[in-house]
Please model this.
Amino acid sequence: MVADHLREAEQHSRVLGDRSRLGSVSSFLSVHAWVTGNPKVALEYGQRALAISQDLDDIGLRVRANYSLGQAYHVLGDYDHAIQALERNVEELRGDVVRRRFGLLGAASVVSRSWLVWCLAELGEFERAAPRAEEAIRIATAINHPYSLLAAYFGLGLLHLVRGQLTPAIEILEPALDLVVYGIRNTRCDSWPSLRRSVTPTRYRERPRTGHATLREVDRTSGRPGLDVRPVP
Amino acid sequence: MFGQSLRMGWLAHALLESERGTDARRAASEALDLARRHCERGHEARIHGILGQIVAETDPEDDATATRAYSEQIVIASELQMRPLLANAHLGLARLDLRRGKRRQAQEHLSSATKMYRDMGMQFWLEHAEAATRNVTPTNRGVRGNSM
Model:
């Protein structure tokens, strides 16, 4: 259904010779293909959107295209190209535009960093990933935008998880989970009030090891000796 | 849907930890199928490792399937340069070799895994690899229930 409308819009844009709209529709089609599990198609639309954005010197379209390309390359396992696309956004989104979303769910500078961190973690480039993850959290915290915070926590949590650092991973991912639960109950992201004060990793440092306590309880009830926590191999 | 294979893979791992081996294996197979169908190569590599661990821990007789899963993980992780997964796959194969009494092969896999974990600063996994390495030495034969 969504795809039908987008393809119709694509046709109209072609007929009208409207490059701007064609770029925008291509960007949406890329997202649609990625979400529905067609990363190769997402790549094609993303590349087209990027080419148009460069012709038109349209920063919003360029940012969205690079983000989509990063996601498509990531899922295909082409981490080098994903990193290149996402780093283009990191470089571009400085200064006044650092807090802008450009039509994405979160601040483009934050969500691009989170996906970049994931890609770098998969390659074992932890030292390169860590500063980007921290930057994402600093930006998301400064702009106090819930979805951006969620994305930032997810990036850092995933980095810890892949590295096998379980306690820090839990301390980051638990507040992220709280954000998700809060978001489900309050479906409009914009209506999420100043969550930064109530849901932050700092709060969890004050009551640390919540996750471990839960796992200990699981261990106790299952009769297994001690804390036996293993990350996914 | 994007990432469904990965979510299913993590579910499989959680089922293994909950001692629901049959469900875990079924979920891992489904996850693998999803990853292949949607060309999710990185996720596919991770799921091979999960499947390898599930089979190794719940069906020790089925060495072949576990070995094949870890070997597939090595192939894809090498191709995509996913070094953490590559190291994990070597550790998984080493544990299988230890169980089968193939000490030389186990030592080779452990050397690879240990070096990679050390290079990447993956302390948690490094400790696991070093613990397995201690089992390779003849003086520790039989420790930790390995069937040598």
Helices of chain B lie at 4-17, 21-37, 41-58, 63-80, 83-99, 103-120, 123-136. Residues 20 and 122 of chain B are 29 Å apart (CA to CA). Confidence is low (pLDDT under 50) at residues 140-148 of chain B. The interface with chain A takes residues 1-4, 9-10, 13, 17-19, 37-46, 49-50, 52-53, 76, 79-85, 88, 91-92, 116, 119-125 of chain B (CB under 8 Å).
